[in-house]
Amino acid sequence: MKLFYYLLISILLYTSCQTVDIPKEKYYQFYSNSKVIIKNDSMLCSLNNPLVCPLRFYISTSDNDLNKSLQALNPIVVSSKTDTFIKIKIHIKSNTIMPYWKTMLGDPNNKIVYNKVSLPFCKGKSYKIIQGYNGWFFHNTDYLRYAIDFGLKVNDTICAADDGFVVGVIKDYKVGGRDKRLEPYANFITIYHPHSGLITQYVHLKFNGSLVKVGDIVRQGQAIGLVGLTGRTTIEHLHFNVLVPTECEDGSKSTPIEFIENYKGKDLSKNSVVKK
């Protein structure tokens, strides 16, 4: 009987942990003034890249036959801080088609330089590793495989791992928890490093915890944000990921990295300690 009550209490506690208000509003790390419309016998694509980073546009529609033709065009790579206009002839009644577009950071055709980066926190600090490469809980997809979770606490300072440009900021979410539905609702910062082609992300910032904005130039070691508990997490930490642009569903994949402080990412396992 005691075992039954223990199990019942455990289930109730677990269920209560799952109760969370999912944010009603969805934020995006950057905004583009792009438009794709269909007029008469043409698809008109006005593509705007506001970032200091190449941006890939993937155009699609509600018509499968037209999408097959668009496959030869996608992706359309638009250079940093550039506007591009493309007119595509179509032979389908325009009032039956709904056009869409999505964007991905970086250009997979650009050469990647796998230089070392700095640990993403303040000099003189040391932290435990919460989760390393191929972590069973979360780091088990191509996009996350080589991410590292550093045991920073709420309000601890996050620093840029390398020189670059801020190309993404989300700062307005307030909630976090165990619920899988919270995955898209973490605050984070994305930085593009043009000298290497790498992209770094710093995830689980506090509400209004970004110290930078899209378009800012940042230097290695510069304070860029404050740790929080937003998104799918119940443990205080900084989720740090280094990405390479690729032609895949997520647009980028996680890559192994080494640090200038003489640490190799592959050697950083749970509970190991790193110092800057």
Question: Helical percent range?
Answer: under 10%
CATH topology of the largest domain: Glucose Permease (Domain IIA)
If you average the pLDDT, what whole number results? 90
- The Rg value, from CA coordinates, equals 21 Å
Low-confidence stretches: 1-17
Main beta sheet, described? 11 strands, antiparallel
Number of helices, where a helix is a run of at least 4 consecutive DSSP H or I residues: 2
Question: Could you describe the 3D structure shown?
Answer:
The chain has helices at 2-18, 64-70, and strands at 35-39, 42-49, 55-61, 76-78, 82-89, 99-105, 126-131, 148-150, 157-159, 164-170, 176-177, 187-193, 198-210, 217-218, 223-227, 231-232, 238-245, 252-254, 258-259, 263-264, 273-275. Strands 7, 8, 9, 10, 12, 13, 14, 15, 17, 18 and 21 form an 11-stranded antiparallel sheet that branches. Strands 1-2-5 form a 3-stranded antiparallel sheet, with no helix packed on it. Strands 4-3-6 form a 3-stranded antiparallel sheet. It starts with a helix and ends with a strand. The protein is 9% helix and 38% strand. It has 276 residues and is mainly β. It has 2 domains: 35-105, no CATH class; 126-275, Glucose Permease (Domain IIA) (Distorted Sandwich), CATH 2.70.70.
How are the elements arranged and paired?
Layout: H1 2-18, E1 35-39, E2 42-49, E3 55-61, H2 64-70, E4 76-78, E5 82-89, E6 99-105, E7 126-131, E8 148-150, E9 157-159, E10 164-170, E11 176-177, E12 187-193, E13 198-210, E14 217-218, E15 223-227, E16 231-232, E17 238-245, E18 252-254, E19 258-259, E20 263-264, E21 273-275
Parallel strand pairs: 11-16
Antiparallel strand pairs: 1-2, 2-5, 3-4, 3-6, 7-8, 7-21, 8-17, 9-15, 10-12, 10-14, 12-13, 13-15, 13-17, 17-18, 19-20
